[in-house]
Amino acid sequence: MYLSDTSSLYHIKKINQYIFEILxxxxxxxxxxxxxxxxxxxxxxxx
Length: 47
What we know:
The chain has one helix at about 1-45. By secondary structure, it is mostly helical. Keywords: Membrane, Transmembrane, Transmembrane helix.
């Protein structure tokens, strides 16, 4: 009982870490995309 409990807790921790990494990369990609659009717009308007 105790062993299965700790293993399930371990799995939950691993899943949380995985979700956090996915979110982190998603936000990173999203921000780079937004910044690229802003830079493009600025270049277009400055010319």
